[in-house]
Amino acid sequence: MKTMLDIPDPVYRRLKAEAAERGCSVKDLVLRGVKAELEGGRAPRKPRAVTLPLIESKRPGWLRLTNNQINEILFP
């Protein structure tokens, strides 16, 4: 089946150069990319661990901080 794609010039230049570097046609490189995407060629994203700053309080469950103190903790 034939189809038409509108690829921006800078992207096409990079695509053509990459195909030449790999020794294949632009068509072959595009087909490989499409197949890889359809077959789930990308690794699933792993969730990042979030670390929160620990702030000690004399009264657990109660903490009075100013905006400046919060900014100092979050953006040292």
Structural summary, described in words:
It is a single chain. The chain is an all-alpha fold and 76 residues long. The chain contains three helices and no strands. Helix 1 crosses helix 2. It is elongated, with a radius of gyration of 26 Å. The model has no long low-confidence stretch (mean pLDDT 85).
Q: Estimate the helix proportion, in percent.
A: 40-55%
Oligomeric form of this entry? single chain
Portion of residues in beta strands equals: under 5%
The SSE string, one letter per element, is: HHH
Reported for the largest beta sheet, the result is:
none
* Average pLDDT level: 85
**How many beta-strand runs?**
0
CA-based gyration radius:
26 Å
| Outline | elongated
Outline the low-pLDDT stretches. Answer: none
Write a concise synopsis of the structure shown.
With 76 residues, this protein is mostly helical. Helix content is 46%, strand content 0%. Helix 1 crosses helix 2 (26-38).
Note the topology:
Elements: H1 9-22, H2 26-38, H3 67-74
Helix pairs in contact: 1-2
